[in-house]
Write a structure and sequence with these properties.
Helix content is about 55%, strand content about 15%. It has helices at about 5-15, 20-45, 55-80, 85-110, 135-165, 170-190, 200-220, 230-250, 265-270, 275-300, 305-325, 330-345, 375-380, 385-395, 445-495, 545-560, 565-580, 635-640, 660-665, 675-685, 690-705, 730-745, and strands spanning about 350-355, 365-370, 400, 420-425, 430-440, 505-510, 520-525, 530-540, 585-595, 600-605, 610-615, 620-625, 645-650, 655-660, 715-720.
């Protein structure tokens, strides 16, 4: 014999659960067997001359109650997932009741002489001593009337449960299950009771708890407040029809029953099973109570429907405004929704939104959206500027209960501006706009209207602030993208590699403090014997400095071929830049020319940092030929002050050209790197080639600063004259590029 595992046992149990297909089949089989056994028992009783024994009667009642429980579970599982509107609930109960009546009326009259119905009662169809049915037709009637009545009762209970437990609470749920338990317990007290006996005192007492709980549950009808006017009217009509049906078509206890066909319904059910009859009577009685309570509550709540609908509109408006917070990319739609919100919520009859003119940047208001009123009419009748100013200054709303009496409005009675409210839209302590709302009656806004509109305004301010931030973010991203393009363009304006010259090593690098900078350096080989170079620094930083740097590059590439002499070049450059530079902008520069044949270096300085020079013996000095910055003077003074300096080159001579980003950079304590440190670093590393000196100076500068970024654009160019070719062209280029790339990577 195999032993089932816990998982197998659980699987088989689930297969047998009431919610499974097998469970439904089992429940249906129990119902059929129960009522089939009841029918068989009734036949046995009819054919027996004496009353059946107590054990058979006990078994009969037990089987009937098991069938009742199985039918309950079957219907409960069928209707568990269903949800419907109250009107649909009443309608389905009424429809099933009509079907029940349609089946019950012919069934009750079946086998009875129509002429004798008024003479003989249903009770006469049962044996006086044993209570057994006298004919087979009575067995049919009692069995199927009990089954139909039980189905109708259970269905009605399940549907009413949906209404009672709407917006359920623990208390409501507890009261409901207590009522159902009390109804079952009361029914069980009639277990084994003869149908011809009257209830005893204990059974009467057992009926009190379910009746009390039915009253409690019938008063729970919170679904009513969520109905609109039309839905309430429909629910009133259907609940009234259902109540009339229950009171007239079914024997509702002590109330008179005008129906000649169903007046004996409960007699048949009671002779079928006393306990079942008690349960059906309690269930139908609960239906009568709930329909009565619902009808009265619907009538009482009918006048408050407008207020509830208004609250619903307010909630819908708040929901739409909340959605707009996430859709800030369309300002026009946002403004239109803000202006429409008070009108859609029923808080106002017309509205418009005024915001500070974004074009002028002033507080001059601009009407950006209206609802139920035209902008022209608003401009003609309302001094929006004055009201906007007053509300903005106070930061609080202004309520004009009698708008016509206010000097800021040019309205008369009948113009549709009886009362007006102006509410500020404030975000982060800034007034973004004013929401104006009006009604055509004086004193038309109650305090709850004002509170609601203030809530709209607060939500609208958040949405507008989000829209503004979104727009600013887009603008920042656009500018950043443009600056990235400008940076790439500027990078291409600088030499991609240093020139290869026999007897000379060169290293250079450039780092911008921002995405684009104003420093510039370049080389140009005029012929095999002459190499021109320039280094410049535009005053200021950023995009404007980069623009002038590009202009300087164009001048160098064109003028240096025509005027290679430093003085001539700088004069032409100053003349060319004189009309393009702004008054507060100038360019400092050094222009130099190396003559390899004569081994001379000639330079001119236009207000730029002096050139650091050191020879092989370690004699270091700064070369300071006089000269004004480009653009500082547009007359003769520039030419008069301009000087040249000519140096005869010796092997081991080093020239360091740089911008102020080198010597004026400051450490965390504010101390400048300075000229002395630059010269000292040059002395220490003068024996290295240009790249080694370049890297040593940058290393010394970075070590002094102790930070990973520069406050200003930085350019450093190192020339070392060796007199002979010490490095290959390829190596020279690669090293220079590598050096520049390493520095930029470090700074970035």
């Amino acid at each position: 014999m195999s032993v089932l595992s816990p998982e197998q046992i659980s699987e088989r149990f689930r297969a047998f659960s009431p919610g499974s297909r097998l469970g439904y089949a089992v429940l249906l089989a129990l119902v059929v067997i129960s009522f089939g056994y009841g029918f068989f028992f009734q036949v046995i009783s009819m054919n027996s001359e004496t009353q059946v024994s107590g054990s058979y009667f006990f078994l009969y009642n037990l089987v009937v109650f098991l069938g009742f429980g199985a039918l309950w579970l079957l219907l409960h599982k069928s209707y568990k997932a269903r949800s419907a509107s109250p009107a649909r609930v009443f309608w389905t109960m009424l429809l099933l009741g009509l079907l029940f009546i349609s089946a019950a009326i012919p069934l009750t009259s079946f086998g009875r002489d129509a002429e004798l119905i008024d003479v003989f009662d249903a009770v006469d169809e049962f044996d006086y001593n044993t209570g057994a049915p006298l004919v087979v037709t009575t067995i049919f009637k009692s069995t199927f009337l009990s089954l139909f009545a039980l189905i109708f009762t259970l269905y009605m209970i399940f549907r009413i449960k949906d209404l009672v437990l709407f917006k359920r609470t623990k208390t409501a749920q507890r009261n409901w299950y207590l009522m159902m338990a009390a109804m079952v317990v009361a029914s069980l007290t009639f277990f084994m009771k003869s149908p011809r006996e009257d209830p005893n005192i204990l059974q009467v007492i057992a009926l009190i708890p379910p009746l009390g709980l039915m009253v409690v549950n019938s008063l729970r009808a919170s679904w009513i407040v969520y109905l609109n006017f039309k839905e309430k009217l429909i629910s009133i009509s259907l609940s009234t029809l259902l109540l009339i049906f229950l009171l007239t078509s079914v024997d509702a206890g002590p109330l008179p029953n005008p129906s000649p066909f169903l007046q004996d319904l409960f007699v048949y059910i009671q002779f079928y099973n006393y306990g079942l009859n008690i349960f059906v009577m309690l269930g139908i009685g609960f239906g009568v109570l709930y329909c009565t309570a619902s009808l009265l509550l619907l009538l009482f709540h009918l006048p408050t429907t407008g207020d509830f609908q208004r609250k619903e509109h307010e909630r819908a408006v708040m929901h739409s405004l909340t959605e707009l917070i996430n859709q800030a990319s369309d300002p026009e739609r946002l403004y239109a929704q803000i202006a429409a919100s008070p009108v859609e919520a029923g808080s106002a009859q017309a509205s418009w939104l005024a915001v500070a003119d974004p074009q002028s940047g002033s507080l001059t208001p601009q009407i950006v959206a209206t609802n139920k009123v035209t902008p022209g009419r608003v401009s003609r009748l309302v001094d929006t500027v004055s009201l906007f100013s007053d509300v903005s200054a106070s930061g609080a709303y202004i309520y004009l209960g009698e708008a016509a009496a206010d000097h800021r409005l040019s309205v008369r009675p009948g113009d549709g501006f009886g009362s007006m409210l102006a509410v500020p839209l404030i975000a982060r302590e800034e007034t973004l706009g004013i929401l104006f709302v009006t009604k055509d009656v004086t004193h038309g806004f109650e305090q709850d209207d004002i509170d609601a509109i203030q809530v709209y305004a607060a939500q609208a301010a958040i949405a507008m602030d989000n829209a503004r931030l979104f727009e600013e973010q887009l603008e920042k991203e656009r500018l950043a993208s443009e600056l990235d393009i400008a940076r790439e363009v500027q990078r291409k304006l600088l030499p991609q590699h240093v020139p290869v010259v026999d007897g000379l090593t060169i290293a250079a690098s450039n780092v911008s403090a921002e995405r684009v900078g104003g420093d510039y350096y370049d080389f140009l080989a005029l012929d095999d014997e002459r190499l021109c170079l320039v280094i410049g620094d535009v005053s200021g930083k950023g995009a404007s400095a980069a623009f002038y740097m590009a202009e300087m590059q164009g001048i160098f590439q064109s003028v240096s071929r025509l005027a290679p002499n430093p003085s001539e070049f700088l004069r032409h450059a100053n003349a060319a830049l004189a009309h393009s530079l702004e008054k507060n902008v100038f360019i400092s520069a050094i222009y130099g020319m190396l003559n390899l044949k004569t081994e001379e270096f000639t330079m001119g300085r236009a207000g730029h940092c002096p050139v650091a020079m050191i020879d092989l013996a370690g004699n270091a000095r700064y070369l300071r030929p006089a000269g004004l910055g480009l653009g500082l003077d547009r007359g003769q003074l520039f030419e008069k002050t301009l000087q040249e300096e000519r140096i005869s080159l010796n092997p081991g001579d080093v020239f360091v050209l740089y911008t102020d980003g080198v010597v004026e950079s400051r450490d965390v304590e504010g101390e400048e790197y300075g000229y002395d440190r630059l010269l000292e670093s040059l002395k220490q590393h003068r024996h290295e080639d240009a790249e080694g000196i370049h890297d040593a100076i940058l290393g010394d500068l970075d070590g002094f600063l102790g930070i990973e970024s520069y406050d200003d654009d930085m350019t450093l160019v190192v020339l070392k004259w060796n007199g002979i070719n010490l490095a290959s062209a390829q190596s020279n280029s690669v090293k220079a590029k590598k050096s520049a790339a390493q520095i930029e990577q470090k700074i970035d």
